[in-house]
Design goal:
Blueprint: H1 28-47, E1 51-52, E2 58-60, E3 80-82, E4 88-91, H2 96-106, E5 114-123, E6 135-144, H3 149-166, E7 173-179, H4 180-189, H5 195-205, H6 208-220, E8 223-225, E9 231-233, H7 239-249, H8 256-267, H9 271-289, E10 297-299, E11 313-319, E12 323-324, E13 330-331, E14 335-341, H10 347-350, E15 356-362, H11 363-372, E16 385-387, H12 395-407, E17 412-414, H13 421-430, E18 435-438, H14 441-446, E19 448-453, H15 454-461, H16 467-473, E20 477-481, H17 485-493
Helix pairs in contact: 1-3, 1-11, 3-9, 4-9, 5-6, 6-7, 7-8, 8-9
């Protein structure tokens, strides 16, 4: 109760314990999962000859200019602050813009093509929501300086291998591939000339999975009235133009070669479209040489990414596993990563077009998807072995046991709270400890140690019928000579 005799300035201020919206706290389970994914994927990237690179968290805001509507709102989309030299700096929005700045700044000294991978947190000043954070971990791999379609193919093959290494076995995900040149050729053949109409068509195509063919047909034409009564104005195409777009986006059934033939029938004759077909054919040939089958990477004409960003091949990783939330309800993760060719980003700094291609995925999102599919990244949770603290007089013995276990590579801790034995056992259970070590006066005098196998106890507890008998039998508990401690604990933890 506040002392009413105190003035407001004398009263103790107690801030509310809360974290900012869109910024998540992560405990060991989440961090272990992210670490396991990053280690597995990094190993794949390095096998492909990609160099690790880490750029700073801050970039000058003008380096992220494509995300800023105007110079009067430097915080729009990013978290920015003004440096002491009056320049605006912003926390990086992604890992690609810093790469473009780095490549432009160091181009003369870099090996070309420059192949790099990177991972780390990125920040977005956007409205947070379910599964949508303002700080999250990304992992990217990019090739800068090669215009060859084989560079795209290698990124795709590496993404397939990386996702598999992260915990998605074959058949759990698929890379879907398209080419912006095909879309541009299609729009030219359909008589689409203005940028506004072009964007309307691409946005309609991008909704194929959600609205189906008839919903997209309406958006390609006059427009669509949704269930809420809201009307979305369409792209204004008519007749054969609508049919050709729909034929194009539905040409993705079958293998990569079959899909190429279907696409050629729809857009053949457009110079840009034919260029896109040639690039996809070269990507297909390279993927075959790299051992990437049709069920791992396919051509999907309905894939639309970065309407004003990508210049050639685009690709998107889709999760195929069945996923459920904590309550057993089915959830859909859809895309878990993507990328493509972006030949204009470095040119923002140099004025010269520099070809580049890459793939990126959200680490936290992938970890959540794996968990929802019953595939815990990093393995099951496991805490340290806990040494029960019976008596302050024997603290040296407890720490000697902890040191011996740690020297053998086994995580261990001495309980340093002030509770009795039963709460200490509950503490060890809450830590998901594999075992508890009991070293009382009798054990110390006899040169023995008692070990409680907590993993076995948890496993057997589900079938308990008689609590008294359970306590009498003490399942998983053994007293052994002190010298056999490490071997016995290793046997419990399976290592």
């Amino acid at each position: 109760m506040t002392d009413q005799t105190q003035t407001p300035s004398e009263q103790t201020f107690r801030p509310e314990a809360r974290n900012p919206r869109g910024f998540a706290d992560k405990r060991a389970r989440d961090l272990r999962a992210e670490r396991a994914i990053l280690e597995a994927v990094s190993a794949v990237y390095e096998r492909y000859g990609f160099e690790a690179l880490d750029t700073g968290a801050f970039e000058y805001a003008d380096a992220l200019g494509k995300f800023l509507p105007d110079s009067d709102r430097p915080n729009e989309g990013v978290f920015a602050l003004q440096d002491d030299d009056d320049q605006w700096m912003a926390l990086r929005y992604d890992l690609t813009a810093p790469l473009a700045r780095f490549a432009a700044q160091n181009w003369e000294t870099l090996p070309k093509p420059f192949r790099r991978y990177a991972f780390g947190p990125v920040w977005r000043n956007e409205k947070p929501g379910p599964g949508r954070f303002r700080e999250f971990i990304q992992c990217d791999a990019d090739t800068v300086g090669s215009a060859r379609p084989e560079a795209d193919a290698e990124i795709i093959a590496m993404a397939v291998a990386g996702l598999e290494a992260a915990g998605l076995p074959r058949g759990a995900a698929v890379l879907k591939i398209n080419n912006r040149k095909l879309l541009n050729g299609l729009l030219t053949a359909a008589g689409v000339e203005t940028n506004g109409q072009k964007l309307s068509v691409l946005r309609a195509v991008d909704k194929l999975d959600r609205l189906g063919v008839e919903g997209v047909r309406l958006l390609l034409g006059e427009g669509r009235l949704d269930e809420s009564g809201a009307f979305t104005k369409g792209a204004g195409l008519v007749g054969k133009a609508i049919d050709s777009v729909l034929d194009f986006v539905q040409a993705g059934s079958g293998g990569r070669s079959e899909t190429l033939s279907k696409i050629a029938d729809v857009i053949g004759g457009s110079a840009e479209g034919d260029g896109g077909l040639e690039e996809l054919a070269k990507i297909d040939a390279a993927l075959k040489s790299l051992g990437v089958a049709d069920d791992q990477a396919l051509f999907e004409p309905s894939i639309v990414r970065g309407l004003e960003y990508y210049t050639g091949a685009v690709f998107e990783a889709e999760l195929l596993l069945s996923t459920t939330d904590d309550k057993g309800n089915k959830v859909s993760f859809g895309s878990i990563g993507g990328g493509g060719r972006y030949d204009d980003l470095v040119a923002r700094f140099t004025g010269q077009s520099t070809p580049a291609t890459g793939f990126s995925f959200g680490v936290s999102r992938l970890a959540a998807a794996l968990r929802a599919a019953g595939r815990e990244p990093g393995g099951a949770a496991r805490g340290p072995v806990v040494i029960i603290n019976f008596d302050q007089a024997h603290m040296g013995d407890y720490f000697a046991v902890a040191g011996e276990l740690r020297a053998a590579g086994i995580p261990a801790e001495v309980y340093l709270g002030a509770s009795g034995m039963r709460p200490q056992m509950k503490y060890a259970d809450r830590r998901l400890s594999p075992a508890a070590i009991m070293l009382g006066g009798d054990e110390i005098a006899a040169g023995t140690v008692t070990i409680k196998d907590l993993d076995l106890g948890r496993e057997l507890a589900g079938g308990v019928a008689d609590n008294a008998a359970w306590k009498a039998e003490r399942p998983g508990q053994q007293t052994i000579p002190r010298g056999e401690l490490v071997a016995a604990v290793r046997n419990i933890i399976g290592g």
